[in-house]
Write a structure and sequence with these properties.
The complex is a heterodimer of chains A (210) and B (543). Chain A folds into two domains: 84 residues, Immunoglobulin-like (Sandwich); 84 residues, Immunoglobulin-like (Sandwich), CATH 2.60.40. Helix content of chain A is 13%, strand content 37%. Chain B has three helices and 41 strands. In chain B, strands 13, 14, 18, 19, 22, 23 and 24 form a seven-stranded mixed β-sheet that branches. In chain B, strands 9, 10, 11, 12 and 15 form a five-stranded antiparallel β-sheet that branches. The chains are: A mainly beta (210), B mainly beta (543). The interface between A and B is large, with 83 and 88 residues. Strand 4 of chain A pairs antiparallel with strand 1 of chain B, so a sheet runs across the interface.
Chain lengths: 210, 543
Amino acid sequence: MRRSHPKSLIGLSCLAVFGLAVTARSDDREAPGPRLDPLEDFAAGSIARVVGTDPGAPRNLVLWLWDGAEFSRVAGTRSRRSGRFDFGIRTLPGEGGGFDVALEEQPPDPDRVVLAEPPLIAPMLVSGGPDFDHPIELVIAPAIPRGELRVYDRRTRRLLLRAPVDPHDRGRVTLDLAEHLARPWPETISIEQVLEDGRRSPGLIWRLAP
Amino acid sequence: MRRAIRYRLGASIGLVVASLLACEGDGSDGAAPRIDFAPTPDCIRFAGGFPSGFTTLPGGAGEAAVVQFIPTVVLGLSLDSEPPRLLSDSAIPEFPELVCSRCGGLLRVDSDSDGIADACRSDELGFSCLSPVAGSLFALEPTRVALSTSSYEQLLFIDPRDGMLQPVELETPAPGASFDPADWPFWPPSGIPTIRSGLSTRACVYADGLLDSLGDPIGPNRFCSPDRNGFVTRFTAGAARIGDHLLVATSNLIRSSRAQFAPGTLLLFEYDTGSDPPRVRPRADGPILLTSGYNPTTVTPYTTPSGRALALIGVSGSIALGTGPDLVRTDSAIDVVDVAMGRLIATIPLGRAGLGFSPIAIDSNRRVGLIGAATRRALFGIDLAALDDPLLGLGPEALPIRLDGSVSGYPDARLYSGDSPLPLPKRSTGPPDSQCTTQTSVALSQIGPSGVASDFCDGTLSILHLDLPADRTASLDPGTAVTIERLQAVTAPLVDDATGLVRAIDRVVIRPGRPGVDFDGPDVHFTAGLPEGAVCGVRIRNP
């Protein structure tokens, strides 16, 4: 007599459980859907723990990634009896993207997407030349390689200079202060990134006068 | 926000996987299983654009580390997953921040862990309110990488598994004939070992008769001795650990738009891993070497067949920012440093090449070294057999010895130079050169005669085949030594209608090990800079 292969038994058990899961689906649909918590725990603007609450727990859930145009499946898990679920640490999608959680047999819903909105942070000074405290040319790296940089007199908030961010230049922007800034120069300038949607970064504060 | 929803291919396997989930999970409050599905493309994306550094980690575990440029963190990655996944299962911290009243009263990072915001420290010492800007990354050990930063010039030590800063003990040598602590303003006083998470690469360099890359003479510098001609290092670039040394190149950029550079320098540090934490000190018998040309950007370890530890320094030449021809203003070279001697023994002139900013790729037989280009669709290369002579640089000849066939008795090490590069194929749908000046990087397999080269603008990988003679004394034929096997498009090209797509590829690495034997999945990984930073995997030799 042939012995049943353990994997076969496991498979049959799984099918049985799967059958129960199918039977229970009508109940799943009646329970309120799972919900993601806001993506608050950004680590360095790119990473968050994706967790949430499922009133109909326990059941199988799928995490969907929304990239601003379409969904793709990211991961699956099963909510705990406590009602909580945890998809672990995830890198956040790009701007306009987010996550949705859905029951395994249901589609994701764009209206339900929890958007990943990491803050737009201040640009960085890559180099200032030819001298540290007498800069006439600043090379700036914005946080996101698009939009434009605006240079303000930090004290008066007068706009002094605008420069587009060109991705072909590896996201670097060279600000030629000597050529584009009228004398006398302000004591301190604030260099800010502004995106097409109006979002504005904090300023990179740079002292022009020694 | 209602839009048409499209589901990507592969989603149909989800139900099968989900049924297994139904079997495995019991809904208890124990750890629920998670199954990650493979999205397309196989990229892990993170904040900011243009990752500045990417390296595999030693130890054979299929791990790598990448620099997220803004906000700056180092992310450890497992390459076993498709896409690569984070090694850390907890939040990866940014550098600590402290308020700095003398720099606008804002929070500024304290990356070197000296208890003072970097910008404040920099301003106190007369260098203005400079904070670190991430540069290249290189692996020291499986649990320790070094990140070069510019503006606040230093090497930072980081554990790639969790992104945490790692301590080193800094030890400043006593004053001597070749070392003056005053020339290293960010280092602790001599005789007071100090724990930090970074070592400063800001130093005074002295020599008479120096010219910057525009031909202007270099006089005394106000940060250094007023009685001596010289300059202060800036723009920390590539680095490498070679035995018990750390070697760091500083490109000494003065002004980008004019491609103005002070002479290039290489800093030599002793790195003692026998203590915990490792102890680092500038080499007291000569901590700074001048390179043969401007703008050294990479340091590559190389051991000759006789066991001599060398450092190959990629001297890129002065390169202007921007798009278009004639961005390369001075000649390139690969300098050869004997690490034990602490001397520049040879240089391999490569003409107006414009060497790329990724380290030199060395083939598995250590015969050929290839390096990418900063402003053209090509590779450059050298014949490493020219360095086989164990007496190279030990004779009475003036150093460095030029290995371009111009010095009697010494070989010509040039294989692909600025005048005769190895051209890479262009993608027909790529942007014209007038719109996008490309850059390339290259990686060579350590198990066979193959390699890959990336093209920034086109989003392609050129698959390389190497045909090298077994006899190291046999000369190399540039026409057959390295050939292009095929071109593979891996991302969108850098064209206007590709907005939102992964593109702008840069650093490329070949995963160590035998594809299909030692690992499954992608065997080549590369970074992408748009629409945000990413590391992507692709199968080249592992179908």
